[in-house]
Specification:
The chain starts with 7 loop residues before the first strand and ends with a strand. It has eight helices and nine strands. About 45% of the residues are buried. The radius of gyration is 17 Å and the shape is globular. With about 270 residues, it is α/β, with parallel strands linked by helices. α6 crosses α7. α6 links the parallel β5 and β6. It binds zinc ion (2 copies). The site of one zinc ion (ZN) has 5 residues, from loops. One zinc ion binds next to loops.
């Protein structure tokens, strides 16, 4: 009987998205130092929208080759995975080159709602003040539900990112999210526990404890993510994330190879 615990960190960016710092190799070295066993690069995937803050399509091959070269170079120290974080939007198509890319997994994320760009960007904070907060939240989780139903993704990225600036709904969040969560379960997707929220005004991981409890009730698997955009963010608050997960009842984390899910004890 092995009591080996595996440390997984599946959501990390690179300098190629134009809003992150540090070299990819520094990320890998920091991950090794932090005791991470499975480390995934999941760059913001190219698409024909908000192009300034994502990997350019022309650099897709360069990104993939760089990850695979690092995977080879550090294979005795760490298992490096290749992935994308893909923006799911109702009206803007995703690129076939990404959806069919030869990757380990795809994270589906919502950073933009219909006609309202980058709601996690402080520039757009006014959007919360001028709208019905319960409707914003319902629109957001309806979009998550559609994302799950698309069957294109392995992981639901930062599930309740909409809370980032602490504009919370009046209605019970579990009720708002229920159909989205059921769709995630049905699509056989994993929910990541993402540390980035701890660095933001909401000051807690994505998703909240109550949504994680709902995920556990629905038997949805989890994984862990730093969502690092700088070297120092790798491994950020990992112990806090795992304690939260254990408190709820989880003891397994998932990762993916060639889109197949693997479960390990964390
Ligand atoms: Zn980013
Ligand atoms: Zn994201």
């Amino acid at each position: 009987m092995s009591s080996k615990k595996t440390r997984v960190d599946l959501h990390n960016h690179t300098i190629l998205c134009n809003h992150a710092t540090g070299t990819m190799e520094e990320y890998v070295q920091k991950a090794i130092e932090s005791g991470i066993d499975i480390f995934g690069f999941s760059e913001h995937a190219p698409m024909d929208f908000d192009k300034k803050y994502r990997l350019p399509l022309e650099k897709k091959d360069f990104y993939e080759t760089s990850v695979l070269n690092l995977k080879q170079k550090y294979k005795n120290d760490i298992d490096i995975l290749l992935a994308y974080e893909v923006d799911f939007m109702q009206n803007i198509p995703m690129l076939d080159e990404i959806l069919n890319a030869k990757v380990d997994y795809l994270i589906g994320s919502i950073h933009f709602l219909d006609g309202w760009g980058g709601f996690d960007n402080p520039e757009f904070i006014g959007g919360y003040e001028n709208k019905d907060i319960d409707k914003i939240w319902q629109d957001y989780f309806d979009t998550i539900e559609n994302m799950a139903k698309s069957q294109l993704f392995d992981i639901a990225g930062h599930l309740d990112l909409i809370k980032v600036f602490k504009y919370l709904p009046n209605k019970d969040i579990k009720l708002i999210a229920l159909n989205a969560m059921k769709a995630i379960k049905k699509a056989n997707m994993v929910v990541e526990i993402n540390a980035a929220g701890i660095r933001k005004p909401i000051a807690e991981a994505y998703p909240s404890k109550s949504l994680l409890e709902l995920a556990f009730e629905l038997d949805i698997p989890i994984t862990f993510s730093s969502d690092a955009h700088e070297v120092e963010q790798i491994g950020f608050k990992y112990d806090e994330l795992t304690s939260l997960a254990k408190e709820i009842g989880y003891n397994k984390a998932s990762y993916f190879k060639n889109r197949d899910r693997i479960s390990v004890t964390f």
